[in-house]
Each structure stands twice: as structure tokens, then as C-alpha cells.
Predict the structure.
Amino acid sequence: MPNRFTPKPLPRWTGKLFPGYGCDNSAGIIVRCDRRVSQRIAAAVRTCASGLMIVSPAEHWLTCVVLPQVNVLTPDNHPAQGFFYFPDWHPSKVTRASLAVCAGLGTIRHVLQILGHEYAHYEQWRDGHGYTERGVEVRGRNLVKMAMEVGS
């Protein structure tokens, strides 16, 4: 009999996406959507993530968590609509990283823009560039546009 201490179900598993359509298991994006995120948004994020693996393949395992709220607290306790958690170590010594995207505003375009923005931050970290907001919005928008053309 469930009570208030019964664990809540895990977020709906939305699948693994591999670069090269599953040919390489050393990197990719794992998309996890909370059950309260709409099916349309979850499907759009999966499509965009698979396109990102073709347009700009990840070199690490990335876990992308899609949450239903408007804001999330970053690891340094700042509210944001999304974040890329980059470890302090050099990218060559890391096998996993994660990013979060908030779907609380409910528009697919906005959610995908957040995903593109955070993936652009991943690219900065992966390529050894310093973390900066300069040019990230434009790069994120271009990534999403290319990914949705390829992923569809």
C-alpha cells in the first residue's frame, strides 16, 4: 500500500541516441523527460538531440534532463531556464556530463532554444574554450536549426 514515503516513479525514459545511428557507443545523448513534460515537447527534444549528434557529435555521454518547471537551480544555486554542468577536469579525462532544460513555458521553440544554448556551452567546454555567453545564443539557434533539418 503506497504511502507518503513510497518513492515516486522515475522520469519517463525517452531513449539513447548514438552518433552514427548506433555505430559508436562511446558517446551520445541520453534524453530523460519528466512525466509532466508534454509528449510534443519530449518528441521535439528527442528529434533535436538526434540531429545534434549528426551536426556536432558529442565526444562524451551527455544526460539531458527535461523538467516541467520554468526555472531550475544551477549547481551554484542560481535560477536558470537550463544549464550545462561542466566538470572541473579537462574534457579528455571526463566520460560523462549533463545538462538540464526547463519546459515550463510550454513552447517547443523556446525549449529547443534552451537545449541549443546549453549544447553550445558543451561545445565550448569540449573544445577547450573558456565559458562565455558571447555568441552562444546565435550558435545555439543555428545548431537547433541544422539539427531539426537533419533529425526530421
In short: The radius of gyration is 15 Å.
